Amino acid sequence: MSTQIKKFTEDTVGSVLTKLEQFKTEGGLKLPENYSAENALRSAFLILQETQDLNKRPALEVCTKESIANALLDTVLQGLSPSKKQCYYIVYGNKLVMQRSYMGTMAIGKRVAGIKDVVSIAIYDGDVFEYGFDFTTGRKNITKHEQNFENINPQKVKGAYAIAIFKDGTTDAEVMNMEQIRSSWEMGKAKGNSPAHQKFPDEMAKKTVVSRLLKTKIGSSDDADLFDEIEITDTTVAFVENEITEKANKETLDIDAEDVTENEQPIEESEIKSKNSIEDKENIQLKATQPEF
């Protein structure tokens, strides 16, 4: 890491934290009580110091200032913690993208969709598995799953299911067979052929079905519930944009847009959605991406 990039990181972190504290004092920035934007930004910049593109070049040197700003704003807007691996930063060409992980999806589901807990279980050859529907609510119910210890074999996975347990005591479930799961993996850059998919298909299947279940819950939640405690003002956006403009690299490198970093492996489960430009910040909304592992 060059001295210039290190200084950029330290200066930007210090300045952003100072402004965030100022905005909170003035009432211009409101965050959930259990979320620290300061910690999120510090961990984000620590991670970005080590993030590289496919050609081993530092992300802070390769990526445009607009994409760095968007990635940071996405992190805070969604209330994600980079240090808890609720999101990842990936270099696509000359753009930095914040990609939410399935753990981040679970965290947001608990925050905005009234979910108390989420569990996921793999189904193996030889298991006895049955599920049904509650026709009064349209929700799925797992009615039977018998599994012998001898059946557990990562290479003989038939499918997986996830159960969301809501704070009111009700539940909902999602069930996927391996054909559906592999189709989801095909949407990712690795096409389901990464070392994680090959060695631990049962664990990756569980992540996929969790993401499928929570995508609907988060996507159907009301925006007021999502943002009543998270408010980013125009002043905040202007400051972050100014910090990136002054301190980030000015050079745009011509790299194929299909290039990705080695850090992509945990989250190659979804296609990268086009990001809102920095000028459209007031239209940024919390969206459930399609993290299909």
UniProtKB/TrEMBL annotation:
Q: Name one GO biological process term.
A: DNA metabolic process
Segments of skewed composition (Basic and acidic residues): 270-284
Pfam families reported for this sequence: RecT (PF03837)
Residue spans of biased composition, Acidic residues class:
254-269
Ranges where the record places region Disordered: 250-293
Q: Give the molecular function GO annotations.
A: DNA binding
Q: What is this protein called?
A: Recombination protein RecT
Instruction: Specify the species.
Output: Lutibacter maritimus
